[in-house]
Amino acid sequence: MFSVPASRYILYPIPWYSFLIVLGVVLAVFLACREERRLGLKKDTVIDLVLWLLPAGILGARIYYVIFSWDQFRSDPLAVFRIWEGGLAIYGGVLAGLIVLVVFARHRKLSPLLLCDIIAPGLVLAQAIGRWGNYFNMEAYGLPLLNQSLCFFPLAVRIPENGVYVWHMATFFYESLWDLSIFCFLMVARRKLFRFRGDVFFFYAFLYAAGRFVIEELRMDSLFLSSSVRVSQLLSALVCLGVLLRYLLLCRCSCRLKSPVRFLCVFLAFPASAFQLVYSFFGTFLSHSPLALRLLLLTASSVILIVSLFILYLSVPQEVSDADHPL
Known about the structure:
two-stranded antiparallel ribbon; 7% strand; 62% helix; single chain; globular
């Protein structure tokens, strides 16, 4: 019944895509404002930050998408401005937003990591909501499904191809679920687990990247750096490696990197990270191998990285302060 959206518009001329993005932003701002009050920051700090972040994030997300899919716009350059039709890449938005956030933090004499922690839970919740805009635009779907037992909504959606509707993996739904799981974890962990500035944001970035690395393998509309390199997979692998290195350095700075942790990092985490980097560059050459095998390898590498990160984090001594952070 819902395998094909009834309409792209919630109420003409307002597209579902735009409505869901705005809804995600509103909820993200609401959550960030609550955290602002809890932390005792100056009133309207979040609102002022959002006024900087929103234009930068949208512009960055669009520019990123256009750069890596220019062939789509070559014949109609004005289509670059029709963002309600889709085509916003989250990595571009986050990268642009981070640059603006650092400038804002310097201007207000605030900690950039503190601001990142404030906005991270709302950001991933907005991503979870915004992904459903892809459903209404009939984009961000995955490979065709041949197993009829899997052809049901929301696990799959029907996409028109040559006048016939074909069942495809609903990868937007998979990512939405993953984002929602990250949001729930962050909301609990920031009170029960995290101890340092930046933890909320770095765990958000790491967990999102670990999941996106796997889900990207299923998508049919990936952005490519070259004929064999999926941009989102490469960035995801780099993000995971960067966050791992951060907490490894934090452990080393404390002079308490115990041998089991060292063993885990050397013999599990970093080989898994190296595998993801190599796969990012050469994975398409394995496209003829069974999908189940590729997914097993990618999922295993992400699970190893996630477990390793948690063990590394729990190995950081309680007495380490924010001043000891290497980043």
